[in-house]
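User: I'm new to structure prediction. If I give you an amino acid sequence, what do you actually give back? Let's try with this one:
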Amino acid sequence: MRLHISSSVSGSPVNYVVPINPVFYDPKDETDVEPLEVLHGASIWQKPPNDYRVRMLRWENLDVVRTSFYNLGNYLRSVEGQIRYFRFYELDDLNTKWPNANTWKKVRIVSADFKYNPGGKLVMNLELRFKPE
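Assistant: Good question. You get back a string of structure tokens that encode the predicted 3D arrangement of the chain. For your 133 residues, that looks like this:
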């Protein structure tokens, strides 16, 4: 099942269905702890109540001449900084640290960056950075 993106918490209507699943996903499933410095002694490690670290999805070697891939990049760039609701499907099981357990995850799109590969056929890599809201 493909990743779905919606502007509604109910997921209806689905604004965008990603045409191809990402090749890389950074779920930030390791424990989120931060050191608090102590004047005389070792640091104290604290776990915040919610994990709002930035996650990343990456698509590699997308053929620029295929309009579905080009449209994916354009759509993600058009919603940078905005809140959307993601339905991860297969990725749901990988991400155990999301602040809520809903099917549709509330996400702020941090950035969508294109990087073109040098030489040969014109292909791009797309990195989507997002964080829980």
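You can read the tokens as a compact description of the fold. Here is one thing that stands out. Residues 67-78 form the longest helix (12 residues).
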